[in-house]
Amino acid sequence: MAFVTFLILSLSGFFFYKNSTGNSICKAYALMTLSSSIWALLKFLTQFDFPYGLQSVWVNLIPIPTLFIPILLTYVTWNYTRPTDSSYPFTFLMVLHGVAILFFLYLALTGVLTPFRLQNGELIYRGGVSYFVACFYIYFSVLFCLGVLVRNIFRGDYLLRLRSIYMFVGIFLGGFFSAIFVVVLPLAGLYELSHWGVLGLLPFLWFSWVPIAKEHLFNTELLDFKQDLRNPKFSNAIIFINRCFLNYLDEKSFKEVCDKYEAEQRKILMEITAKLSVDQLANPSGFRLKMNSQVEKIMNLFLRF
User: Fold this and answer.
1) CA atoms within a 13 Å half-sphere pointing along the CA-CB vector of 85
2) What is the 8-class DSSP label of residue 184?
3) Pfam families under this entry (predicted)?
4) Topology of domain 2-218, CATH
């Protein structure tokens, strides 16, 4: 099943990156997905009896890919409000992550960090202090990012709050799901299911990648109330949800959006009505044809074709 997890993560990362703008934040998402998929692949490789102690090498390498998730998550959290103009976080944070990664890399390469050991060719969960310290580093980074998002939810403007909600839900679900399978269940003796923990990245991708890879759904599209009846898309559902959030989080702003939309529609309808009146007086015989063309314009105000 570890190989299935590897395939799911690899295909998900490829799908999301292919359908994104390919900016630096999307690349960070892709790297997080790649790290998790490599973790699952290493877990899969340990099931085979490789010669010359190669199986032990796979066991020691298992923790390494996930060590890069905190710094990538910090980078995403730092830049999710400006995906097209990203920058590096504070130097202190980058140095802190760099030192932690180098320290845990050393422990992993020396065989101290891995939570597993081989016993008669069988993979056995052993835990270990260094492993739980690494878990603390990873999940503390997750909590730190969640704290930043909570602050933005309560202090930012509407668009910032909206993006922060998506990010918070994604990171929270991803962190909670992975903690259950990577930390809690192994302590209960169910370490065989630990490879499912990296699938927690999927809800993280689905919720948090959307406001970054599909940024237009969080800006001008909110002013477009047209309904596409012939070509329903997933993005239409996102726009509808965003409007619900807007109405709940900032009723005044939502009213302003609606008033602006209605004013634009009223202006266009008045222009069409005036033009029809003039055409009827100028050319009564061709009025029916003119009216049909104007009806199409009126329908286009409310429906997409």
Assistant:
1) 2
2) I
3) HisKA_7TM
4) Rhopdopsin 7-helix transmembrane proteins (1.20.1070)
